[in-house]
Amino acid sequence: MVFKSSLNITWVKRKRSAGRIVLTAAIILILILIAALAVIPPLVMKNLIHSHADCETLSPAKFGVQAKEAELTTEDGLRLMSWEVQADKPRGVVIFLSGIQNPSVTAYFGHAKMLAENGYSSLLIEMRSHGKSEGNKICLGTKEYLDTRAGVEYIRSRGEYKDLPLIVFGVSMGGAAAVNSMGEIPELDGLISVSAFSSAPDIFCDSMVNMGFPEFAAEIEKPFVKLYMGFEFGFGNLRINPLDEIKKLDGRPALLMHSTDDSQVPYKSFERLQKAASGQVDTFIREGDYHFICRDEYFDEPWKDEEYAGAILAFLKKNF
Fold this sequence. Notes:
Blueprint: H1 2-49, E1 68-73, E2 79-85, E3 93-97, H2 109-117, E4 121-125, H3 145-157, E5 166-171, H4 173-184, E6 190-194, H5 200-210, H6 215-233, H7 242-245, E7 254-259, H8 267-276, E8 282-286, H9 306-319
Parallel strand pairs: 3-4, 3-5, 5-6, 6-7, 7-8
Antiparallel strand pairs: 1-2, 2-4
């Protein structure tokens, strides 16, 4: 009996020891998995964030327009380059913001020409860390609304624009910054957002899915993207994201434009933004992969893309 009892005790001890080994191994594997998930965002995003986009500044003469250079200063101390294109007897002012890398906002002089001919002045702002503007950190929309605010202050300082409506027009990351600007700057009267992402974690993880990662794995990654962004931009700035900011339209008109097969900002972002806006937005959807919505061959002369130009001008005419 003593021998049998001793065997039982030994067996129990071995079982407990094996259990501890399995538990320890499981904890180690979980920690390794967490560490791997946590290291992916900085590995992928660091070089993009800590950079200055050296996009080519285009001459307004190339587009047949006259533009006045204006230097803006943001409330966090960055000097930005901008270009003002005036319309005769303007009925509003459109603020242009471009994307995360290329092109420079000066590629939109053709759009400014089209708007001037239809009664709208424009201010084209080269966002922080782009072209001739200062900065060495691309903030993925969390701080670029400050660039828009500097533009609003400049426009309001011009007597001829004092009481005119202000519309912000942004593309890609500039589209996300434009949405954020609407939420943070009540002086803005309207929004045109082209191919905006719904949030930086969304586009990061949507891109993972497009590369073949399982959707559940991409969803698990989102908190780690937010964590990295918090360290880079400040955790208080994480509240500045398009999904939340678009809820602050408060009746102000907005036009969201996207293409169904956008390879840079997946269509899911458009669907999220549209849902978050709860019916407050007009939409323009183009079939195919057209990140800039305007067809490439007409980009310098956007009025030749009649469907695209018509949607923009109809929105402006209806609301302003």
